[in-house]
Amino acid sequence: MKIGDSAFRTIWCDGDSRVVNVIDQTVLPHRFAIKTLHSATDAALAIRDMTVRGAPLIGAAGAYGLALAMNQDPSDAHLQSAFDQLLVARPTAVNLRWALERMRGHLGPIAPDRRRNAAYAEAAAIADEDVAVCSALGQHGAELIAAAWRRTGRSQPVNVLTHCNAGWLATVDWGTALAPVYKAHRAGVPVHVWVDETRPRNQGASLTAYELGSEGVPHTVVVDNVGGHLMQHGMVDLCIVGTDRTTRTGDVCNKVGTYLKALAAHDNGVPFYVALPASTIDWRMRDGVKEIPIEEREATEVTHMSGETAEGDIATIRVTPKNSPALNYGFDVTPARLVTGLITERGVCAASEAGLLSLFPGEERAA
Ligand SMILES: CSC[C@@H](O)[C@@H](O)C(=O)COP(=O)(O)O
Q1: Ligand 1 pocket mutation, candidates 94, 203, 328, criterion most atoms within 8 A of CB
Q2: Which residue windows are transmembrane per the record (predicted)?
Q3: pLDDT by residue (tens digit) across 114-160?
């Protein structure tokens, strides 16, 4: 997508260069900086400290992390140790395991002296596929936005509420929840986005607002707790969010606070959609609340906030009393019964096992 006049992906290699470039998301929207990753350790750190974040991008970064590992030492032992190191970088987004298993499955049968090129090619294939998949699911989701517009008699912009950042910065390009917005906007459907700020790390206020602004999509940043009020007053036509892991039964794990939005949507008859590539489906899990590992991050993300000062410096300030403890669960699970539909690259389906299997037949065995 565009930043100024230039088109960017979130992760890429320059030509035959063996290093991997990423957009540093920890300094957006105040700075635009590119970080270069030289090793699997760099990639693991970038995932852990959220230089790169968002489930599909975490997967692509894991894949490139294994390519960097193969560049250093293509042995079986190093393939496995880099796999283990990357797998634990963040626990909730299943795309990481999906991408690492795909890379290991591809590289394992290849002789070590031929693994280097094969690893970069496979990581690039994962990245390219993510772009195509997000574009396709965006097209399906845009039809839902266009239908909402038709229901208003084409008289009003469609108001979409989203939580966290599930735009192109969270993927390789296009995004998941925001891909339908971009496709609808480009097709001339007037759309306005309510952007939840998404405490504690403010991915909505900093990243979603940044990308929507860069693409010229009308949007308004709102505090996390206002969604219920907006819905009660008919100010939201549909919610679209992303997900870090969706069970085969359609339970959806996403950034903490998503569940409360789904409850408010349910109570107010507002459709609640979740956009995801198939790589985010965990076919091995059935009960999202009981089985999905929920990341717990540092309490300092709650006790402190960062932003730009009037002088243009980036500063961090404490917002809680010095001795108050804080708890920081990164994600929550929205049960399938609160989800109107899942927007995938193969179309929109019910949030249920039958719904998912209707689009992705052949996954029965993974139960
Ligand atoms: C297309 S991304 C879907 C999810 O990864 C996104 O909604 C989200 O929760 C991101 O969380 P983050 O902690 O910023 O990685």
Answers
A1: 203
A2: none
A3: 999 999 999 999 999 999 999 999 999 999 999 999 998 888 999 99
- pLDDT per residue over 273-308, tens digit each? 999 999 999 999 999 999 999 999 999 999 999 999
Give, in degrees to the nearest 5, the angle at Cα 90 between 57 and 94: 60
Lowest mean pLDDT among 21-25, 60-64, 154-158, 338-342: 154-158
Ligand 1 atom at minimal distance to the Cα of residue 90? 15
For the chain, domain boundaries: 2-128, 137-366
Domain 137-366 grouped into CATH 3.40.50.10470? yes
Spell out which residues line ligand 1, taking CB within 6 angstroms. 53-56, 93, 164, 166, 170-171, 175-176, 203, 242-244, 254-255, 330
Locate 156 and state its tokens. Answer: 């009003």
CATH entry, 2-128, from 3.40.50.2020, 3.40.190.10, 1.10.3720.10, 1.20.120.420: 1.20.120.420
Lookup result for tokens 């709650």: 302
Name the residue of 51, 164, 178 to mutate for ligand 1: max ligand atoms within 8 A of Cβ.
Answer: 164
Active site residue 76: no
Contact 63, 95 (CB under 8 A): no
Tell me what ipTM this predicted complex has.
Answer: 0.98
